[in-house]
């Protein structure tokens, strides 16, 4: 017959609201500040105050709730990559053209052999992402057993549906943790230094696709890689297939 009434003092309410409006910090950051000022409060109490005063963005709250209820799949810590195709990392690199136009380089790299597939699309839609995945499944000279991507929209929607259809595990990196996709990110640095800064950017989509295909061939079949004991990715793949490994043949991925 009678609802429980809040017992938090008005001083705590006022000070919590002031700090929230001033800094916008979460309950976990506000609680130790309040304790330093002499207020004996818990994290949950601060959270309830913020919520009841309407100081939480509903859109952000729904997004976090959805993420908590449906967590994205991450690869297990200490995952061992022992065969070509055990893990292929994917990412996109935007190409800024004159007039503010953009093209997008889609990149897939095999973690073990460093073999890459490249393509250029006019947008980052998930349909283009799915089309790129089809290319990778056809053009890599081995079976892809798992892929890892960031949380971009191009790797959701149609891309995810295709992964499910092909029974292909898709692992996501943590938000704002690009270093977890280190192999593809490092290869994009190579693209910038050795390809784009040498005058290979083109304004035409078709011309850019031709250039990127030529660069893909150079990267895979001509350019020596220090991590492969100065072999090209194709030479390394041949060595792996023949059992004559010139360098380590197992990579352990950490989260």
Topology:
Blueprint: H1 10-23, H2 27-36, H3 43-52, H4 58-69, E1 79-81, E2 88-96, E3 102-110, E4 116-121, H5 126-139, E5 147-149, H6 158-165, E6 170-172, H7 182-194, H8 205-221, H9 233-242, E7 251-253
Helix pairs in contact: 2-3, 5-6
End-to-end Cα distance, whole Å, is: 52 Å
- Derived from helix and strand composition plus strand pairing, the structural class reads alpha/beta
- The stretches of 5 or more residues where confidence is low (pLDDT under 50) are none
Helical content, roughly?
40-55%
- Rg, Å, rounded: 25 Å
Oligomer: single chain
Main beta sheet: 5 strands, mixed
What does this structure look like?
Helix content is 42%, strand content 14%. The protein contains 9 helices and 7 strands. The chain has helices spanning 10-23, 27-36, 43-52, 58-69, 126-139, 158-165, 182-194, 205-221, 233-242, and strands spanning 79-81, 88-96, 102-110, 116-121, 147-149, 170-172, 251-253. The strands form 2 sheets. It has a 5-stranded mixed β-sheet, sandwiched between helices. Strands 1-7 form a two-stranded antiparallel sheet.
